[in-house]
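cron nightly-structures :: item 1 of 1
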Amino acid sequence: MKRLMLIFLLGTWCPAFAHGAMTPVAGPIKLTCAARNLEVSVTMAVWARDVTICAEAIQAGFAEIDRIENVFSTYRQGSVINQLNQFAAIKPITVSEEVIELLQWAGQISEKTRGAYDITIAAFKWQYGFGQGDYRVPNFLRLDQIKPVVNYKYIVLDQKAKKVMFKRLGVQIDPGDLLINYALNRVRMILKKHKVQAARVDMGGNIAVIGRRPDNRPWKVAIQNPRDSKRILVKIPWIKGKILQAGDYQRYFIRKGRRYHPILDSRTGAPQNHSMSAVLLLPEDPKIDLPASVLMQVPPKEALGLTGTIPHSECLIVDRERKIWLSPGWKKIVKDLDPGGGFSL
C-alpha cells in the first residue's frame, strides 16, 4: 500500500495523494481526497457545513480503512489473516470479535451460494500470482493437488472463546472483495457519525453514498464496457445504498489468448467464465450483504435469482456471450444503455 500523504488545509489535516483534489464549492463545503488502500484506488467526497467537518470526517474514514487493512490484508505481514494462514491449521488462534463476525459473514454467503463463493480460495489464487505482482499460468496438476484444502467448512470458529482453527494443513483464506464491502460499510458509518450532509465513497468502482447530492439530483455511476475501457456501457442513477462492481477486466493477465482473473471456480481453481462483469445495487441495510463478484461465480440466471432474494436490490450481468441481463427493477429505469461492441439485451 502506498502511504497516504498528509496535506494541510485551513488548519486541518486530510490524507490524500499530492495531486488529490480538495475543492470548496458554493453551498455546503465539498472536500475530496484520494489514496490507495486494500489494493484499489479510494476516493472520498464529502459535503458539510464547514471544511473542518469535511476534513475530520475524511481523515477518520481513511484511518478506518488503514486499520481494516492492518487486520485483514492477506498480503500484509503481521495481519490477523496472515497469522491465520500461517498457524491456524496447527493450533487455535485467538482473534477479535470483528474477525469472527467477518468469517461468519463469509460462511453465510458460501452457504447461500452452495459453495460457489469460498473464502478459502486463496490457496488457488497464490498459484496465479494474484496479489504478488508476478502473474503466471499455474501448473494445473498443482491446482488438482490443492483442491482438497479449498472448502469453507474447514474453518472452525469458536465464538465464545474467540478462536479460529483450520481443519486441514494448507487451508488459506482471502477476504477479497468482501473486505471492500466491509470497508465501505464501516466508512459510511464513520462519516455519518461526523454528521456530513452527503458523501460518496468509491473503492475501486464499489461505491457507497450518504444522503442526496447537494443539487438534489440522483447519484449516478458509469458502468464500464467490459471489453473497451474507453466506452461506458450504461450510467445508472440511484438514491441510496451501495453500487458494487466486479469484472474479469479489473485485474487480469492474458496468456496465449486466454484471460486469467482472480474470480476463480472454487471447485477447480480455474477462472470463472459465466460472466464478464456484474453490477449489484444493495440498499443501506440489505438482507444479504455480498460483493458483486459473487454474481460472477454462478450462472447469470442464478445470479438474478440470488439478487431477487434481497429486497430493494438490483443487478446487471454481462455474460460470456455478451448478453446483458437486467433485474426487473433496472429494466424499468436503465434507459441509456449503449451496448455496442456486440453486446445485446
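cron nightly-structures :: done
The helical segments are 51-72, 80-87, 97-112, 122-128, 140-146, 177-193, 300-308, 328-333.
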